[in-house]
Amino acid sequence: MTFDIRLGLAIAAGKLSALSIRRLGRGGGTALPGIVSNQLDADILDKLAARIPGGSIVVAGTNGKTTTSRILAEILERAGLGVIHNRSGSNLVRGITAAFTEQVSISGQPSGQIAVIETDEAALPEVVRRTRPRLIVLLNLFRDQLDRYGELDTIARSWQAMLNELDPDQTVLINADDPALAAISEDTPAKRLTFGFQQCEHTLDHLPHAADAAICRRCGASLTYRELYLSHLGDYHCEQCGYRRPDLDYGATDVQLNGLDSGSLDLSSGDATLHLDASLPGLYNLYNVAGAAGAALTVGMPDWVVQAGIGEFKAAFGRIERVEYHNRNLVLVLIKNPTGFNEVLRTLAMSDMTDPVMIIINDLDADGRDVSWLWDVDAEHLADVEAPLFTAGIRSGDMAVRLKYAGIASERITPLGDLDGAIDQFVEAVPEGHTAFILPTYTAMLRLRELLHQRGVVQMFWEQ
Ligand SMILES: [Zn+2]
Q: Would the CA dihedral through 435, 393, 367, 409 be positive or negative?
């Protein structure tokens, strides 16, 4: 390999800026080094990606891309591969460039054999064009988080254009239970593989409020679902034009949820079936497991490595945590958007629980300024359980109103207001030795951790 001076300078500058950001204590330095090195060599990402011997795997989707790419990286590492991965979750082009710059030598030698790249929805076409991945994993397209870019259709169209530009030696693995993904990948020249749920006892009887994209993209009619599993994901067909879900190359059967802690499924491909146990809660995570396992099998990972990698994967920071506090067992579950929120409520309702629940809603920038999304949440799930409900945070009142409109009796709802005062009131309402659930939005989770930390709770944070 000849030494590329421009590339070497760009890598050096990126590494230096990452180092100085850390020295200054300005956080992890996840984006600026990418901007700096990209200014010195505009092709840096293309060049570095081309040097990774085992190629790149790109993971995208509105929900689950962090978890899925982490599970996939875990499996590949378990097989003894060095994995280049934008683990910090900085998933725009500059963040991905920064992660690559960090994980190569000055001469541009990558430190790993394969790359796993978590990618933002809007950045996906550019990332694919520049890294030319061997495998692209598309998880889902939800309306929830797409408001900041415009409509779901804009993203879907840009993905479709990207898929139509791929080469036959590239592979795309899509979640076929998402009708939009199935439709936009129909004409790709790449090899298309599919995953989804073949059989699962946990079904919905109607599209939840948050659901979208349940329209046949061929003829515009409404889709009919034989089974509906989660939001708009399921086994669908169009009665008008006959379009239906594609056959599954990786089909999950016997999909089981074990309360809030874990789940399992059998993943079938051809004649082979692989049993997978995961310490992750909720159906949405079992979709992530199926996608990560399908991706790992597609790039040739042996069954036992896939099983072990998934079995030992621990939920990433912020997904679900347990805290012992004043002899109460607090379970913290981050709520990021209506779909995730719905799944948590559904899981709670299914387990018939009577333990107190506190929902903390903030509306700072990182949470989303507009709380109208609370009306996309099926709070009605909570009408059927007997748990006492508390609300807190900046928009405590809005959440309490939402619960009332879900048909929940006012005497079951206690608005506590400001989180700083609410935490102690809530804990006092939980009988000693019992479990309670706390569902905060992002900034509420950060503040909650601070408050618990001030109160002497230690062992909890930043589990990676
Ligand atoms: Zn149709």
A: positive
Contact in structure between 313 and 293 (CB atoms under 8 Å): no
Tens of pLDDT along 119-128? 999 999 999 9
Ligand 1 centroid from CA 234, angstroms: 16
Rounded to the nearest angstrom, the distance between the alpha carbon of 159 and the centre of ligand 1 is 21
Ligand 1: distance of its center to the CA of 242 in Å?
Answer: 6
235 alpha carbon – ligand 1 mean position (Å): 14
> Does domain 48-96+109-311 match CATH 3.30.420.10?
no
State in Å: Cα 218 to ligand 1 middle: 5
- pTM, to two decimals: 0.76
Quote the ligand 1 centre to 420 CA distance (angstroms). Answer: 52
Cα 410 to averaged position of ligand 1 atoms, centre (Å): 44
User: Distance from the CA of 239 to the center of ligand 1, in angstroms?
Assistant: 7
Task: Tell me the mean pLDDT in the region 376-395.
Answer: 89
The DSSP string of 273-303 is EEEEEEB--SHHHHHHHHHHHHHHHHTT--H
The greatest distance separating any two alpha carbons of the chain, rounded to the nearest whole angstrom, comes to 74
Strand pairing category for 413-417 and 320-325: unpaired
Per-residue pLDDT of 306-339, as tens digits, reads 999 999 887 544 467 788 888 898 988 888 777 7
Q: HSE of 196 in the Cβ direction (CA atoms, 13 Å)?
A: 26
Tell me which CATH homologous superfamily contains domain 320-454. Mur ligase, C-terminal domain (3.90.190.20)
Surrounding residues of ion ligand 1, Cβ less than 5 A: 216, 218-219, 221, 238, 240-241, 243
The domain locations on the chain are: 48-96+109-311, 320-454
Nearest Cα to Cα of residue 251 among 231, 232, 229: 229
